[in-house]
């Protein structure tokens, strides 16, 4: 591979790292072509981009993308496959599903919203990780809950001041 081709790959990987913000580094070595194609198909169905690259090119792409993490660099040994996703936990859920069928892919590391998670033992934590949108929805639901209770009490009390007072008394 020529130097220009390597530089193009590094640039493309760095752009993906920047644009997605979430990526996983996995080990898919020794899997059959059939299994790899199955993984690729499932990634496509779940809007996960899968990319295989040499560790040296991944390391250069990390630096190019402004991620200078020794933790991530330390896992770049053996075969490495990158999974990119808009959702921080989608690749973890996919890996968990795939692990029911075999012992690979193995999670080497994940980088979710500027935080590195290193090691396969982090998989369960990543599966349960909520996205930014899910957290915002939880906060909105928590804020709306008291207002819904007051409105419900008002409606059951006949929309009167005495109904409101009764509802507030019952809650207090």
From TrEMBL:
Pfam families: Ribosomal_L10. The keyword Ribonucleoprotein applies. GO terms for biological process: translation. InterPro entries: Ribosomal_uL10, Ribosomal_uL10-like_sf, Ribosomal_uL10_bac, Ribosomal_uL10_bac_type. GO terms for molecular function: large ribosomal subunit rRNA binding. Keywords: Ribonucleoprotein, Ribosomal protein, RNA-binding, rRNA-binding. CDD domains: Ribosomal_L10. One of its GO terms (cellular component) is ribosome. Belongs to the universal ribosomal protein uL10 family. Forms part of the ribosomal stalk, playing a central role in the interaction of the ribosome with GTP-bound translation factors. Part of the ribosomal stalk of the 50S ribosomal subunit. The N-terminus interacts with L11 and the large rRNA to form the base of the stalk. The C-terminus forms an elongated spine to which L12 dimers bind in a sequential fashion forming a multimeric L10(L12)X complex. This is Large ribosomal subunit protein uL10. It comes from Sphingobacterium yanglingense.
């Amino acid at each position: 591979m020529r130097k220009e081709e390597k530089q193009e790959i590094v640039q493309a990987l760095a752009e993906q790292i920047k644009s997605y913000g979430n990526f996983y580094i996995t080990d898919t070595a020794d899997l059959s072509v059939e299994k790899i194609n199955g993984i690729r198909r499932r990634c496509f169905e779940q809007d996960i981009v899968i990319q295989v690259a040499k560790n040296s090119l991944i390391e250069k792409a990390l630096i190019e993308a402004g991620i200078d993490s020794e933790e991530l660099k330390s896992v770049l040994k053996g075969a490495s496959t990158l999974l990119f996703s808009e959702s921080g936990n989608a690749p973890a859920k996919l890996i968990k599903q795939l692990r029911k069928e075999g012992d690979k892919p193995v999670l080497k590391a994940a980088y979710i919203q500027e935080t590195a998670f290193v090691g396969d033992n982090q998989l369960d934590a990543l599966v349960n990780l909520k996205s930014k949108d899910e957290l915002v929805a939880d906060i909105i639901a928590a804020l709306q809950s008291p207002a819904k209770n007051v409105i419900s009490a008002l409606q059951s009390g006949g929309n009167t001041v005495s109904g409101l007072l009764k509802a507030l008394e019952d809650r207090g």
